Amino acid sequence: MIIIMEKTATIENIKAVENILSEHGFRAILHEGDVHTVIDALGDKTTLSPDRLEAMEGVSHVKLIRQPYRLASRDRKPEDTVIEFDNGVKIGGANRPVYIVGPCSVDEDYDGLLQVATAAKEMGCQFLRGGAFKPRTSPYDFDGLGEKALQYLASAREATDLLVVTELMDSSDMDLVCDYADVIQIGARNMQNFRLLKAIGRCNKPVILKRGPANTIKEFLLAAEHIMYSGNEKVILCERGIRSFDDSFTRNLLDISAVPVIKKYSHLPIIIDPSHGTGQRYLIEPMSKAGLVAGADGIMVEVHYNPAKALSDGKQSLSIPQFREVFSKLNSLVDTLHLERKSVISNLD
Amino acid sequence: MIIIMEKTATIENIKAVENILSEHGFRAILHEGDVHTVIDALGDKTTLSPDRLEAMEGVSHVKLIRQPYRLASRDRKPEDTVIEFDNGVKIGGANRPVYIVGPCSVDEDYDGLLQVATAAKEMGCQFLRGGAFKPRTSPYDFDGLGEKALQYLASAREATDLLVVTELMDSSDMDLVCDYADVIQIGARNMQNFRLLKAIGRCNKPVILKRGPANTIKEFLLAAEHIMYSGNEKVILCERGIRSFDDSFTRNLLDISAVPVIKKYSHLPIIIDPSHGTGQRYLIEPMSKAGLVAGADGIMVEVHYNPAKALSDGKQSLSIPQFREVFSKLNSLVDTLHLERKSVISNLD
Amino acid sequence: MIIIMEKTATIENIKAVENILSEHGFRAILHEGDVHTVIDALGDKTTLSPDRLEAMEGVSHVKLIRQPYRLASRDRKPEDTVIEFDNGVKIGGANRPVYIVGPCSVDEDYDGLLQVATAAKEMGCQFLRGGAFKPRTSPYDFDGLGEKALQYLASAREATDLLVVTELMDSSDMDLVCDYADVIQIGARNMQNFRLLKAIGRCNKPVILKRGPANTIKEFLLAAEHIMYSGNEKVILCERGIRSFDDSFTRNLLDISAVPVIKKYSHLPIIIDPSHGTGQRYLIEPMSKAGLVAGADGIMVEVHYNPAKALSDGKQSLSIPQFREVFSKLNSLVDTLHLERKSVISNLD
Amino acid sequence: MIIIMEKTATIENIKAVENILSEHGFRAILHEGDVHTVIDALGDKTTLSPDRLEAMEGVSHVKLIRQPYRLASRDRKPEDTVIEFDNGVKIGGANRPVYIVGPCSVDEDYDGLLQVATAAKEMGCQFLRGGAFKPRTSPYDFDGLGEKALQYLASAREATDLLVVTELMDSSDMDLVCDYADVIQIGARNMQNFRLLKAIGRCNKPVILKRGPANTIKEFLLAAEHIMYSGNEKVILCERGIRSFDDSFTRNLLDISAVPVIKKYSHLPIIIDPSHGTGQRYLIEPMSKAGLVAGADGIMVEVHYNPAKALSDGKQSLSIPQFREVFSKLNSLVDTLHLERKSVISNLD
Known about the structure:
Number of domains of chain A: 2
Radius of gyration of chain A: 23 Å
Largest interface: A-B, 53 and 53 residues
Oligomer: homotetramer
Strand order of the largest sheet of chain A: 13-12-11-10-9-8-7-14
Distance between the termini of chain A: 23 Å
Largest sheet of chain A: 8 strands, parallel
Helix content of chain A: 25-40%
Order of helices and strands of chain A: EHEEHEEEEHEHEHEHEHEHEHHEH
CATH topology of the largest domain in chain A: TIM Barrel
Strand content of chain A: 15-25%
CATH architecture of the largest domain in chain A: Alpha-Beta Barrel
Number of helices of chain A: 11
C-alpha cells in the first residue's frame, strides 16, 4: 500500500500512521515530497484494511499495488481452471466453447421445453437453462413456477442428457435447487448478495456467477472470491451486459472486452450472455461471434418454443428455427477457426 | 400502451397483435402512418405484459403511457405518507426532518456505541443506526457481529430512547432482526433482491429502502411497490448515491434531484445518506444542507466514537465532536428556514 | 409524434396543442384515457419541434415514432454506402474490411513514420493515420507538430501509396488539412462541435466521424446527419469506446454492439478503434477480431516505431514487430472467414 | 509519480525506467516487493509525461500523487478568486451569489427579451444570458440568430445595466462575440474543444466554462487550466448536469457535490445551471436552493417571456411570472441564511 498524506498533515498524524503500520507488522518507508508526504507500507493487507488507514487524520488516500482478490487471480494459479462434469463435458482452458440454451423462465408447457431441449441437443449444446424462480422488476410480472419448473428441467435432462442450469435466488431454496441442478446460476442482481455467495459454498455444484449490471470487473472477481473463499472453487464467470447511458437500442451494453481482460487477470472460465447483454434477437448472432473470437469459454442464449408466448424476455429469445439457423453459423465459426484450441492470453502487456 | 409496428410488419402481424389485445380485454385503435403502423391499446396492463407484445413478430417496440407502479404513486394517493412511531416520532409530510445517526457497523466496544447514542440524543436525533450484518465487497473484510450487535443496539435504545435502525441482509435473519429493530433497512445492493422484498411484508416494521447504486428512479419505486404489494406500506425511501463515471473525488454521486422528483411522483417519505452518498467526511455538511432544502424528510449520517478505529467506512464517518459541530449547523438551518413546515411539491409542471 | 398530456391538463391546454398542430399542418387524433389524454400527431416534424410542444402548459411529454435522422437512415437508403477512392480502395458494403494504422501523433522522426508506413503497406493496410493537431486533456502535454506533420504524412504517402487520414480540430485549419489529407477525421471530443461538422461540408473529402465518449448512438447518427445535411455524404462512422463506470482495466469501453446496431439502422460504413477503445495493447488483437466478426468495415489501430518514445498514447500503440504479429492473425481471420463477403444485416427483428 | 512494474518485468526494464527518469532530472527510489517492483519518482512531471512511462516495456501503470492542474489548484492559491466587473458586480469568495437569467436562445422578438431583462433587474439579477449561436443535436433545429442576437443583448444591457453572457462556439466568432459580451460562455459540448480554450486567452473577458456532460471533475479543472495557461485567469466554472444511466425524469443529473468538491480543490468560483442540469421547470427551485446552500457562487436559469414559443429548451424555462415567484423564494433563502457571507471550505478532511 502507498499512503498519501494531506498537505496539512502534522508530524503527529504521520507518526500515528507509522505506529499502526508497525503494530500490524508492516514495514513503512517515508518519502517527504515538497507538497505531500508519502508512506510505502510493505506487509499483509488482510491484517489491516486500507479503509481504516484512510479514516485516520491527515491521510488523504491510500493506493493499492496488488489486486485485492487472490484465489481468483492468475498470479496465484497461472493455468486455466477447467471444470469437468461426470458426462465428460468441460468448460474452460483450451476446450471447445460450450453452449447453454433454453427459455428465460420455465412455463406450464413441458412439451415446449422438451422441443427446445431436443433441438439444443441436436445442435451440439451441452446445457439446458431455465428459470424456476425469476427476479422481476415489477411485482405484477410472472415470477416463476418454482419446484414444478425444476422437475420439468430434470425430465428434459433425462430425455436429452443435457446438463441443467438454473438460478438460485435465496439461500432458503439452496437444498431444493442443488437437488435438481447440475450448475447453479447466481443472477446479476444478486452478484453482491454476499449471504447467497457464502451459502453456495455448501453445495458442491459448479456456479455460473453473472456480473452485476453496474459492477466493475474488480467487484466481479471479488464476488467470485467470496464463493471460492467459502469453499467452492468451481466458478464460471458470465458477462451479461452492463448499464450504460444509452439504452435506446440495447437493453444493456455487452462488455466484450471483459472476456480478454478477465482471461489476463484470472484463471476462471468466462462465458457471455448476448440475450440479456443486448435484449435484441438480431444481435445474438454477431455478439456471440464477437465473444467467441475474443476468447469466451461459452455462450448462454435464450431459446423459446414460442417467443411470443414467453412469460418473460420474449423479445430477446430465439425461436427454435431461428436458434437452428444462428447456431449452425456459430458451429461453423468454431470449426473453421478451430476455437477448440483457443488460447487467448496475450503475451503483450 | 402504444404499440409501434416495424416498417416491414405484415397485415397478419398486425392482426395477431389486435387479436391478443382483444383476448385480454383491450380496446385497440389502429393508425396507419406512411412508415409505421401504430396501435393504441387501452386496457389493464396487469393482464398483458408489454414484454409479451414486444416479442411478437412485426412489433418494433411498445411505449407505456402510465407509470408501472401504482401503490407507490402519488396519482393513487395525493397526500404525503407519514409514518408514526409509538414514541410520537413522525417521518414524512410537513414534519421536521429526522436524523438517523450511528456507526456503519457495530463493533465490540459497547461503550463507544453508547457515547454516540448519547450525543445523538442531545443533538435532537430520533434514530440510532448500526450494522449487525454487513455486506462487504471483499471476503477479507469484517462482516458484522450478528446478534451481539443487535443486543448492543437494544441496550443503547433503552439508555437513550432512540429508535433502532439496522440492516436485514437475508430472509433467514428476518425474525431475529424484526425482534430487535424499530426500522428495518434494506441495503442498496439488495434493492432488487426480490425475495427479501417479499419477506419484509411479514414484519410489521417500517422499512428504509436504499436506492441501488445503478438503479433508476423507476426501478426504485418498483422495488418499493414490491414491498407494499406484499403487505407493508410503511416504506421510507433513501437516496444514497449512484455510480457515475467519476469516482476520483467521491465514492458515489449523491442524486439530490431524486428528492424533488420522488416527491412529485410518489407519496412516500424520502431521506438522503450523504455518508455513503459521497464517501467523504467534508461533504456531509454541504450535502445534508442541500438535501434538506430540496425537501428531504430526513438524513442518515455515519458517526463513530473513533473513526480511525472503525472496522468499516471510517473515512466517511464523523467523530463525536465533528458530529456535534455539523449537526448544530443543520439544526440552525432547519430552525431558520422552518423546514418543519416544508412542502416541496411544486405547482410547476 | 404522440403527445401525452398531464393528468391535470385542462380542456384549454388540449385545445392549444390541437391548434398549434393544425397551424403546422399536422393531423391530430385525440384519445381520452381514464388518466391521461393522448394526442396522435401525424405530419412533418421538421416544421414543428417536439421541444416546443413539450414546453406548452399541460403537456407531460412527447414521444417520437420515427427516428430524427433521415439522410443517415437505412429507411431512406436500404443499400450500404460504399466510399471509393481514386486508387480503387473501397470502404463499406461487401468489401474487405480496411486497415488504418499509424502513430497517434506525428513526431519529428520522419524516418520512424516511414518505417511504420512501409510495414503497413506490406501487411495490406490501405491507410496511414497520424495526428498533426492533437487534443490533449492537459495543457502541459504535447499537442502536435502542425503543418510539418502534414508534410511528413504526405511524403510517406508518396513513398507507399497509402491514403492519409488526419484529424481536423478547428474550422480555421480546414483548408490546410484538406490540402494534405485523403480522409478527414473528426475526433471524439468534437463529435458535437456543430460548427466543425458544418464546415466539413466545404471539403469534398471523406470524413471519419468518431463517436463521442458519452454520446448515444442516436446522437452519433445525428452528428453524421449534420455533416450530410451540409453537403458531404461520405461519412465513415468510428466506434472508439465510451465512458463507463469502470476504468481500472480499460481506458474506455469499446461498444462492439454499436457495429451491428448501426448496420441495422444506417447505411453508412462503420469501423472500430480498439486502441482508444481499450487503451491497452494486449486488447487490440481480441477486440479487432470481435469487431470484424460483428461486421465492422475496418479497424483503426495505433502503431509506433518506438511506443516508449511516443509523445502520446504509447501504452495503447503496437510496435512494428507487434503490429506484424497481430495483423498477420487478423489477415488470417479475414481470409478464413471470407469477411470480404460479409453481410451482417440480420433478418431477425 | 509512482511507477508500478509488471510482475514479469526484467532487470533491463527496470534499468530503462531508471535511466529515463534520471535523464529528466527525477530522483528514483526503488522498492522491490515480493510481487511487484515499485519506483518512486520525485521530480517535475511537466518534463516527462506519465503516458510515456506507461508505454515502456515492463511498466504496469503509473500513479500520480499530485493533481495535474496547477494554476486552477487551491494548493497554489489558497484564497478564493473573486472576479469583479466595472459596475461593481463580484463573483466568488464571500460575495452574495449572483443570478444569471435569460432565454436559451435569443429570437426575433426583442420586446420579449426586454421584458425578461427588466424583470431580471427587478428581482436583483446581475446578468442577462442569451444564445446567439446555438449547438443543436439535430441539424433540423433552430441554431441561433447570430450577430442580430448579440445586438439585441447589447440593447437590453443598455436598457437595464445587466451584464451580458453569451456563448462562443467557434474561434472564428471570437472577435465578434468579445465585442458584445461581458462574459463569454464555453458550452458543455465544447469543454474539451482545446483550440477554443486556447483562443479564449486572446479576449480579456471573464469566461463561464461549463462542465461537459461526461467529464470528470479532474478534466473540468484541466479545461480551466488550459484557459488560464493561455493567459486568461478569469474563469468561472459551471456545473450543468452530467449524463447518467437514468434520463426518464431528468435530462441530466445535476452534480451538487461538485460544488463543495471544487471549492476544496480549486480557488475558482463555481455556479450551477439547474435548467440544463435537470431539464425540468419544477426542479429549478429545489435544485437552485440545494446548490446555494452547498456553496455555489451563483445560479444560471433559463427564463423566457413565453416558454411555449421558445425555439429551444422551452420545457426547462421559467415564464416571467414563474421566474418572479421562484426568485423571490431564492432571495429570501439567501437573505435568511446570510449567504453573502458564505464560506464553505470545510476544515474536515
